[in-house]
Structure formats: C-alpha cells, structure tokens
Amino acid sequence: MGAISLLGITHHYEKEYSSLSDFEPYTQPIPGSGESIPMTPVPGGTFQMGSPGGETDEGPPQQVKVDSFWMATYEITWDQYDLFVKEEIEKLKTHLPASADVELQADAVSLPTPPYVDMSFGMGREGYPAINMTHYAAVMFTKWLTAKTGRFYRLPTEAEWEYACRAGSSTAYSFGSDTTALDKYAWYKANSEGKYHQVGRKKSNAYGLHDMHGNVAEWTMDQYYEDYFNKIAGGLAENPLFLPDQLYPRSLRGGGWPDEASELRCANRMHSIKRWKRRDPQLPKSRWWLTDAPFVGFRVVRPATQPPKEQMEQYWIDAIEDYN
After folding, report:
1. Interior CA angle at 18 toward 15 and 23, to 5°?
2. What's the CATH code, domain 23-100+115-323?
3. Which residue of 6, 129, 224, 266 could cross-link 251, Cys pair, CB 3.0 to 4.6 Å?
4. Domain positions in the chain
C-alpha cells in the first residue's frame, strides 16, 4: 500500500495498474452514499484524429497518441452530481474511506452555490444526465471526487474523448457512417422528443461506452481553438492538451438531444458561448450554473497511471486559474 497527499487529504490507495492484466472495468463507489460510477478501460494507442471532410475546425487530420485511461461508462447523472452540490465540508471529512488519513483544509474543495431554478428543467433526474453545469463546476466535481476517493479523476482531453468515442473505428460514427443506424446508439433531434433520456438506454460502442453520440454534449478539459489541428501538427502528437487560459470558448464533444445527426459524429467539435448564461439573474454571472444549456453535461476519466502528487495539484491550479 502507498499513500498520496492531495488537496490537504492523505489517502492510502491500492496498487498502481501497471499492466494490462490489471486494467479492467471497475465500479467507483462514492463514499458516504449508495451511488457509484462504473468505469470502463480504454487501452491507449495511436489514431487518426479529426475529419477528412473539410470541416473548418476538424482537420487536417493528425496522428495522435493517447495513454491508457478509464472513462465513465455513462454520463454523470443527477444522482451522482447532486451529492457534490449538496455536500458540506464536515460531511466530506466524515465520508472519506475508513482507511484514509484525513487532514482537510477548509478551502480544499470548492462546492457549488445552490441552483436558483430546477436545472433539470423538468426533464427528469433519477438516472438522467446532470446538465447546465459550467466547465468550472465540472472540473470541481472531478476535484471533489478525487478528494473523496483518493484516485485522480478529471475531465477527458479532446484527444482522449475522440479516441474513446471512435473505439478503434475510423468512420463518421463509432458504428460506421450510415446514419440510419444512429437511432440504435443515440438520442438526438430525430428521436429525443425534445428532451434528454436516462443514461445507458442505447447501444454502447465497441469499448462499452454508452451515449458517446448524443443525449448530452460533454465538457472536455481543453480550451477550444478553431485551429486545434494546426497547433498539434508536425509529427505524432502525444497526449495533446490545451489547458484553459480564458473563460470562452471551452471545448465539448458528442452532440446532444437537440442536435442533428451530423453534429453527433466522432470528430464534431462544439464550444461554449456566453449566451448559455443569458438568463442568469446574478451579477456577476454564476461560476457554477448555466441557464440556457440543458444539452451540456460531462463524464470523468481516470489515467491508468496515477500522476505524482505535485502534478495533480498543479493540474487543479492550471485548470481553474482564469476563474480566480
């Protein structure tokens, strides 16, 4: 057994997953609750990222290498996200694993302000994807989950997301390029009836990941750049990541329930806009909640090799620097 110190908390953690024989699906319990997050292994590799179709921000395609990671099998649901929204610092201490040595700083984990309306917009909560959180809030959820479990969770990079979505394919969708099959895999404009749906009700891709196409668009860690592919050009790009350095725009992937079929392609890219906070009555606008993005959600990843403490702590600093 080893130990890591993160965000003022010292945990004991299980062995590193250093070989593929250890790299298996698992379920991450959320301490202090009956909720858990199924995690699917995504073995690393090299792939052609982007689209050859001439879309302005999807190419030219580049060779990209990503390391192995686990990805949440489903989008984060309200059942899981509400634990974070309703958490209290003292409860966080109480609910850490019994094996943990706890020394929690008062400001170690930032917690959301209460939403001012029902952010599900009446579309459903139990088993449905959480929506309308800002990029900052999604990042803070991963920090909270890391503090709760002692395992390093974060948002996926754009490259990791597309690699996981493709699941070894090179076609427009993970299952091929024929949109007539899309109904089997995705909730989108043609079949969603104007709302999101419970996670996992459609077929998974070859890795076993559900709702990578549609249902809700998913935050990635990256700042959005229209010329992303020119920025990573010049040979094999290894684990590319553009940490945010300004509030807008941030990158999302996957498309959502209001979108056309073409917006659900593996290579399709979305970005955040100020209008997603248009009806926010607060001044300044909330750093936690969107009011006009009921199609935005997220899922988490965990690197197969947990990075050193200093690298994890620097990640949180860099990930939210422009919000401070």
Report:
1. 90
2. 3.90.1580.10
3. 224
4. 23-100+115-323
**48-80 tens-digit pLDDT:** 999 987 678 999 999 999 999 999 999 999 999
Contacts of 27 (CB under 8 A, 6+ apart): 36, 37, 38, 39
pLDDT at 10 over 90: no
- Residue pair 150/97 in contact by the 8 Å Cβ criterion: yes
Stated pTM of the model: 0.90
Which tokens hold the place of 11? 């945990």
E strands, the chain, are: 2-6, 9-13, 26-29, 36-42, 45-49, 62-66, 69-72, 217-223, 237-238, 250-253, 269-271, 296-297, 301-303
> Which band of pLDDT confidence, cut at 50, 70 and 90, is reported for residue 144?
very high
Q: State the Cα–Cα distance between residues 186 and 194, nearest whole angstrom.
A: 13
Rounded mean pLDDT, 127-131: 98
Residues in the chain: 324
Nearest by Cα to 229 from 244, 210, 242: 242
As a whole number of angstroms, the distance between CA 222 and CA 243 comes to 5
pLDDT interval class at 97 (50, 70, 90): low
